[in-house]
Amino acid sequence: MAAIVNRGTVTEAAGFNADADAQRLREAMKGTGTNEATIIEVLAHRTIAQRQRIKEAYKQTVGKDLADDLSSELSGNFRSVVLGLLMLAPVYDAYELRNAMKGAGTEEACLIDILASRSNAEITTINAFYKKEYGRSLEDAVCGDTSGMFQRVLVSLLTAGRDESNTVDAAQAVQDAKDIYEAGEARWGTDEVKFLTVLCVRNQNHLLRVFEEYQKVSGRAIEDSIKREMSGSLEDVFLAIVKCIRNKKAFFAERLYKSMKGLGTTDSVLIRIMVSRAEIDMLDIKAEFLKMYGKTLYSFIKGDTSGDYRKILLELCGGEQ
């Protein structure tokens, strides 16, 4: 397997010293008031692995939990970003999924953003952490909080069973395209299970071929058909799957754009993507954002947020370009 290239804006800090960082954070929280600038300087410029070592050093030297201390010192969106940065990636995903389903109502967007975009290995780890942390399976939680075909798509994604090979079966791709066409555009009512079977199970290369074949059979892009045939969360999850298969970075760029354009900001989406992609592909997401919208992600964040929340997001964004 090819080495995974870090296309993130957050990279390993040179001359890293966990004890020194722990002390700086301790000093930043001592006495009255908090030195947010230090917190941003340390945490936004360390990798997840380095932050785990800072957490250990903090516990050893202070005898308290760093996340607990920061949580009681900070508030609002800034606190949400900082606490997210302290978590391992699958722990953060599990935590976000849990929050999306806690209390009344469900933040379907969170379930979709995470489950439609993560690899099998990532979903398997998220499942394990969720069970360990919250004492029930993620599938149980999802089933208790969603219903109908939307629930079935999420359950399918949670099995982490997508084919991850690169092989394209040309004849099968034609058949898949026909099956979807006949399940949707070509009939009265939509047989959504056919969409699920193809979109949740086949590998990326194969699906790209299916999308081409679908265009030939139906005369329109599969996204257009999904929009015509479906609505609500089911439409959203199928569109997210198709977009992630086509170009995951563009998917995240669009989610960021939509979280900030118009009145108000959907901070939950903005925070989740900035925190979870900072060390993976933020450089590519920024490039896609600029290509798609003609403005930098940096300028959007700057115009849409304020205070320490804005400062830490701009650090995670990593410069204007």
Automatic annotation (TrEMBL):
Record-given protein name: Annexin
GO cellular component terms listed in the entry, alphabetical order: nucleus; plasma membrane; zymogen granule membrane
Keyword Signal (UniProt): no
A GO term, aspect molecular function: calcium ion binding
Keywords: Acetylation, Annexin, Calcium, Calcium/phospholipid-binding, Cytoplasmic vesicle, Membrane, Phosphoprotein, Repeat
Organism, scientific name: Parambassis ranga
InterPro entries: Annexin, Annexin_repeat, Annexin_repeat_CS, Annexin_sf, ANX4
A Pfam family hit: Annexin
Annotated membrane topology: Peripheral membrane protein
Keyword Acetylation: yes
Similarity annotation: Belongs to the annexin family.
Domain notes from UniProt: A pair of annexin repeats may form one binding site for calcium and phospholipid.
Family matches, as SMART domains: ANX
Subcellular localization, as worded in the UniProt entry: Zymogen granule membrane
